[in-house]
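About this split. The held-out portion is used to measure sequence recovery: a designer receives only the structure tokens and must propose an amino acid at every position. Recovery is the fraction of positions where the proposal matches the reference. Here is one held-out target exactly as it appears in the evaluation file.
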């Protein structure tokens, strides 16, 4: 079991190729945290460098409300490097085993995910492992993108072959290309597919068959009848095997998801990076007070007065558009009712 000064390990809650994750209680401040620690047998220079890189990336991107925050990092008493992060019980890969997301939920998660990835890409960082098991809900219900363990800086080819094949782009699986922004977009597509169907687009367990299906784009493109065609088209474009047809930037898929949300008259999801209309990032407000996740602090950050940047001008425009759509639908319904009444009067 993991032994760290100031922490009490309760149980192991996950394991991966390089590290284990433990549920721990931090003594000061008193709270439950998820502690990721390198496996003892993996204490190699490459792995340690990768781990340090992950902590730095999370610290660099951690101001975004939809990216996992790091509380603390250090060395355990038995020499295992660790980082303590926010503990989230609700992982989307588990959520969709019980109930897939409906249209409103799918759009909300998709927009939040794209907004987080956009910040990462703007900072020159690829995630490279976007999938439902790396998406979680915080105790406040905020979507969080986690596990930048195999992320890399765009001009760094380090550990270029690390990937989760079921969620990886054809050009990456075939080794014809290194990971790019467009391969992250592909993984967003496969993730959205799974969130509305409950399963990965590619069900093959055999490695060769799996690679063949991914490379040739062989999956059920009708996806599910439970979501609008417009969303299915977005997912299929994001997953297109041809990178010339696939979305070029995450801002493009973000914009299309927002347009669908508005067209359906749904409340717009808040975004924290530049909006689709090119408005500058400006300060906004939130009804919540979140913890300050800076290492070594024990204060609360009030996002009403913080430098967290919300696209409030964009939100206002989307809300106005949504209201217009609702009014138009009400007018159409009224006309249909009048037509039915008039037709009935003529018949009788």
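Reference sequence for scoring:
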């Amino acid at each position: 079991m993991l032994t760290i000064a100031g922490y009490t390990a309760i149980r192991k809650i996950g394991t991966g190729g390089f590290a284990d994750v433990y549920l721990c209680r931090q003594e000061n401040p008193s709270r439950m945290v998820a502690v990721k620690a390198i496996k003892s047998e993996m204490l190699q220079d490459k792995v340690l460098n990768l781990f340090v890189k992950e902590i730095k990336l999370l610290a660099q991107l951690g101001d975004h409300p939809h990216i996992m925050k790091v509380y603390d990092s250090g060395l355990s008493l038995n020499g295992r490097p660790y980082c303590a992060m926010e503990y989230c019980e609700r992982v989307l890969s588990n959520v969709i085993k019980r109930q897939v997301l409906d249209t409103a939920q799918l759009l909300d998660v998709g927009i939040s995910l794209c907004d987080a990835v956009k910040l990462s890409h703007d900072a020159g960082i690829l995630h490279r492992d976007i999938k439902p098991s790396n998406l979680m809900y915080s105790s406040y219900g905020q979507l969080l993108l986690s596990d930048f363990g195999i992320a890399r800086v765009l001009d760094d080819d380090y550990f270029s072959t690390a990937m989760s094949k079921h969620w990886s782009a054809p050009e990456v699986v075939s080794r014809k290309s290194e990971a790019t922004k467009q391969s992250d977009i592909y993984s967003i597509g496969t993730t959205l597919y799974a969130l509305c169907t409950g399963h990965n687009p590619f069900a093959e367990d055999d490695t060769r068959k799996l690679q063949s299906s991914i490379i040739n784009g062989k999956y059920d493109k009708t996806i599910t009848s439970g979501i609008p065609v417009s969303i299915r088209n977005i997912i299929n474009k994001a997953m297109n095997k041809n990178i010339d047809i696939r979305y070029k930037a995450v801002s493009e898929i973000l914009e299309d998801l927002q347009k669908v949300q508005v067209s359906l008259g749904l409340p717009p999801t808040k975004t924290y990076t530049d909006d689709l209309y090119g408005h500058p990032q400006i300060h906004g407000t939130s009804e919540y007070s979140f913890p300050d996740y800076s290492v070594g602090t024990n204060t609360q950050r009030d996002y009403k007065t913080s430098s967290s940047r919300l696209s409030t001008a964009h939100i206002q425009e989307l809300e106005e558009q949504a209201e217009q759509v609702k009014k138009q639908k009400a007018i159409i319904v009224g006309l249909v009712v009048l037509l039915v009444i008039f037709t009935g009067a003529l018949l009788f």
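Annotator remark: The CA atoms of residues 126 and 152 lie 6 Å apart.
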